[in-house]
Write the structure tokens for this entry.
Amino acid sequence: MKKALIIDTAMESKLIVSGAVVFAFLAILVIRLYYLQVIKGEYFKDLSENNRLRTVKILAPRGEIIDREGRLVVYNRPSFDVVLVLEDINNLDTLLESVAGITGLSKEELFNVVKSRTNKRERFEPQIIIQDADREQIAKLEANEYRLPGIIIEISPARIYPFKSLAAQLLGYVSEISANKLKERQLVGDETYKLGDLVGKSGIEAIWEKELRGIDGKKLVEVDAHGKRRKEVGKVDSISGKDIQLTLDVDLQRAAENALQNKVGAVVALDPNNGEVLALVSTPTYDLNMFSRSVSKTDWQALRNNPDKPMNNRAISGTYPSGSTIKLVETLAAVAENLPLATNRNVCPGYFQLGRRYACMKKEGHGSLNLQEALMTSCNVFFYQLALDLGIDRFYKYATALGLGSPTGINLPNESSGLFANREWKKNNFPNDPHWKAYDILPMAVGQGFLNVTPLQIAQMTATIVNGGRFYRPFLVKKIINTMTGEEQIIEPELIRTLDDIPANAFETVKAYASTVVNGNRGTGRRVRLPGIEVGGKTGTAQYKALVDNKKLNPEEDDHAWIVVFAPVQEPEIVVSVLVEHGGHGGSGAGPIAKQVLEMFFYKKGLLKELSNPLAIEKLSGKIEEDEEEIGFVELDDEL
């Protein structure tokens, strides 16, 4: 009996131990199942489904850009991208070695591309490793598809610029969004961009990014165990970006760029009656199509380090002494304020004396002149006295009313404000000599000293004078077009202000006097004359004391050449300003360029029968006296 009891107790202990083991096993199993199905359920569900189905983004084409006559200046073309899905790759090193061998690219370069984005992508998200691959590369990759698991060829839209370098700084370019910009957009709640997406980086492409960028679509594709796509099971189409029509005229833009060829400078053409920009040129320029592919580090550095800075838009961000183009402002102010010199004559002996001698470029002097003759011949001595009579306060009032010293407001990045000094400015910038002196205004009278301007400001200033005092904001976009619906958004001209306190006859007087600059016998702008069309304007030559190896440049080349013209004089339809860095005299260095733009404008209107040789300078009757061309501010003697 006792023995049976011992056996039962032993059996019971074994059963308890066995039960505990079974219970522990079941508990582990339940915990594991809970972990796999509940805690990690979504992960494995995603993994399972993505082994069968993949969501592939369909990139939306960017909107096209057309000129005022509907000609394409930016559009899209199909581009082949080589992408990979990391989750479908067993050995990344081996795969990249194979891709490098097939395409002729560097394995290290491919690896660096993958490495830079590995932690910034979602699972199963395709990653571009070769952008805009050429046809030979694509053909070889497709022929070796069987041994390249995880590699996919995708077609995406890429930008193409048919006119290459035409209006490069204005149009801008697109490039892959940077990590910093992506973060900035995400901070403001914009989740529409992903790493690898293209974004406008400059010019119109950047400013109108929201309108040009479309809405990406997506498609659901079935893949096999190796990640190869078998069939499409669902699709949401992309929505193209909106098209943009510019105010720009390709013919005028091209005429200006051809005329400026091999020179550093800028040209601006405006419609003075509404502010439309007809041409906006900055040279040197660069081929925008280099950004359609991945720009090599070497090419990018060469572009950025070019001493002539081709990526800078000189038309809106380059600031220069205005030279004698500023005399249009003084002439307007003199007439409006009814100054004595608006009607009286003054004698030019070849210099002006105020503590020092300030030279006129005609060393023997112009003799007795009135205001009209002084503007025609650009007599510095006359305008030195005129500026003193006007005073800095009134000079500043008229200059700033015409837009100098502040941005025009054109919708482009990096516009400069320029400078037009006043008493407050000198007080803030010259604490050791804070008070405005008479001699401070003399250099400004001829466009030197405490002022600098952009070519766009000079064009806008002149447009406001010749249209009778209406100050328009310059603008580049006429229309935004939704190609999906046909809806069009018209961009209306924006009248900022009207200069009602200036008598209408003052504007008409300046126009008439400016006509003599081109059409008068002694006018400094005679090279801009057109047959049958009355042109007005003002030349300018701005001193630039440049040194190379401590030696001044060739005297004929170191000064900046200016001209601003308008036509027809009675009812102006176009204003053109030209700046040529180190171009010499305004009449000879900038005048022929302005003439070519005017010729194209009126040729297209049927008012000119033919265009002159783009490089020829019209031979006028009589010798043009270059020494009459103004050259800004020159000191003759230190003391009397």
